[in-house]
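forwarding from the other thread:

> can someone predict this with flavin-adenine dinucleotide?

sure thing
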Amino acid sequence: MHDLIIIGGGVIGLSVACFAQRAGLSVTVLDRNPPESESCSTGNAGMVVPSHFVPLAAPGMIGMGLRSMLNPESPFYIRPRLDPDLISWCWRFFQASSRARSEASAPALAASQLDSRALYEQLATRDGLDFGLQKRGLMMLCASEEALQHELALKPAAARLGVALEPLTPEQARALNPGVDITCAGGVLFPLDCFLSPPQLLAALRAAILRSGGEIRHGVEVTGWDASGDAVRAVKTSAGDVSGAQYVLAAGSWSPRASSGLRVRLPMQAGKGYSITLEQPPAQLSVCAILVEARVAVTPMGASLRFGGTMEVTGLDESVSARRVAGIVKSIPRFFPQYTPNVFADKPVWHGLRPCSPDGLPFVGRFRNYTNLLAATGHSMLGVSMAPVTGQLIANALTGAPQPAYAAAFSPDRYL
Ligand SMILES: Cc1cc2nc3c(=O)[nH]c(=O)nc-3n(C[C@H](O)[C@H](O)[C@H](O)COP(=O)(O)OP(=O)(O)OC[C@H]3O[C@@H](n4cnc5c(N)ncnc54)[C@H](O)[C@@H]3O)c2cc1C
């Protein structure tokens, strides 16, 4: 029997396993899918972003959501349906998107992601894991003067939170990316942001866990719980009961479903996104970028270049919306004239379901109704960025080590 059973082998479950092992615990990771199948953690944009201290639930997002319902190519979409979970999630999202709430979340998001960035450096240098970490910053590129002013206005808040922000002229953006034609009104550079290769990261974490004696069981689905009073005795799985001393729920967008029957409440919706990877791009970026008005993320990964975007709140539906993918492709030449739609023709489209909490903060920590059950889920757009710090926070909770002050903002009981 291992010390820790982790449900979910995406980037969060694997990071939890890695950091728990560092703290001296033995681990088993259960994932219902085979290793080659793709989770949300595979095809994402791989950005590590202390710059993203404004949560998804922010002023203006509700208006954008309502406007986008009429546009089948818009990057943000909530499919209206009579689902009580969706209605209550939307209400909580609305409450969290006030200026006061969104500003209150910023310190926890910035501090935790700065810590996570430092832990990534440690994984790469001290532990020798190779996942293509590039510490070259992130460009936020703006097509319009209005968007540019909005980005520049973040500077005082960024400075207060210890996140460097530098204005970026179109000439400076082009100089940072030789050979790439960039058209924009300007942008900002967040020099502390980084990017990495998600498939390499997953492979490196899996190898590290196995090297340290951990177990990763693929094709094992958690179907229920054997819990009595305030303790979990075992998880019921497609391969029989599995028991350990402690349990961590890290099942991404499926966490609410996987926790059914337990006395916990994790209001979450899946936020579907798409990516297309060009193996031989016509020109290669050196620094990753977000195309602000288009809400498209662009990341160089070795010789290839990945474009990701859209946030469709359409339940656990995994179908691909060709119109919204076309929306991504059509928005790109406005910023990068070399990446015309024909460059993307016939390229495979990947999709993933981001596990979205209503307030844009993850659920990380011990559930108060159970002595041996913890949550590590709900990271929305920041699962890669926050994976190492999530692992560290869970390891601290398991061993009784002191937690940073921001850990309280991630309580998994905040909607109980
Ligand atoms: C287009 C796009 C771009 C993105 N870009 C970025 C980025 O640049 N930076 C960033 O930080 N984040 C980014 N994200 C978000 C990031 O990908 C997610 O936050 C992250 O992958 C979530 O990881 P996870 O481990 O919680 O979930 P997942 O990766 O979904 O893993 C959950 C795992 O749990 C397993 N599982 C589910 N139910 C069960 C069960 N009952 N039993 C056993 N196993 C189960 C699943 O098989 C799955 O493997 C992006 C997302 C998208 C869609």
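The longest strand covers residues 269-278. thats all i got for now
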